[in-house]
Write a sequence for this structure.
């Protein structure tokens, strides 16, 4: 009798453990789906958007918006340096890799910077020019309150240049310390992961990103 009771107790323990594993696995999958396809939080790991965003700021990223709308001038976006295949499951795999890279960064302080944060400056059809430290869009000089130094043309593009279809032209607000379209060329829409629209840390700067 005692043997049967013990066997039953063991079965109940294994069943409960199995149910917990399934529950945790489902929670992980659902969470990964949300952060890869709908909304996520990320930590800024570069200085290229200063003074707008500082290193170690935490921001909320809208990942579903660009599935229905095109990027607009002034949007601050998270992008990958290379084009990625998109789709619900592909997005989940890519996000999983980013999460693992983030964990590695916390322990080692080193990270492979595949993801960048930049400001959209030009969209399809815009004529971009850089002259004498100033940025021109469609022939009009831009008054950019968020930068503190002149804009210098890089070697990747020959200005003036028109933004092709399905591409955007991006710059960092920290113009002297930013890898952007001056170095990478136009950014394909498929490289964009989402729009950073809200800062949640530090609390002193909590609010909408402009």
């Amino acid at each position: 009798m005692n043997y049967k009771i013990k066997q039953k107790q063991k079965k109940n323990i294994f069943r409960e453990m199995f149910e917990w594993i399934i529950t945790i696995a489902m929670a992980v999958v659902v969470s990964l789906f949300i952060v890869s396809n709908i909304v996520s939080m990320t930590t800024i790991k570069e200085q290229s958007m200063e003074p707008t965003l500082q290193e170690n700021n935490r921001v909320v990223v809208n990942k579903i918006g660009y599935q229905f709308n095109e990027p607009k001038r002034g949007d601050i976006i998270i992008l990958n340096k290379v084009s990625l295949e998109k789709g619900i499951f592909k997005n989940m795999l890519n996000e999983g890799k980013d999460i693992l890279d983030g964990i590695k960064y916390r322990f080692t302080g080193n990270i492979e910077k595949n993801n960048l944060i930049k400001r959209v400056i030009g969209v399809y059809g815009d004529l971009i020019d850089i002259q004498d430290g100033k940025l021109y869009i469609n022939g009009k000089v831009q008054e950019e309150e968020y930068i503190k130094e002149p804009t210098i043309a890089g070697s990747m593009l020959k200005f003036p240049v028109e933004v092709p279809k399905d591409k955007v032209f991006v710059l960092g607000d920290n113009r002297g310390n930013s890898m952007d379209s001056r170095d990478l060329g136009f950014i394909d829409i498929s490289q964009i992961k989402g729009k950073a629209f809200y800062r949640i840390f530090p609390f002193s700067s909590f609010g909408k990103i402009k």
About this structure: The longest strand covers residues 192-201. The CA atoms of residues 151 and 175 lie 6 Å apart.
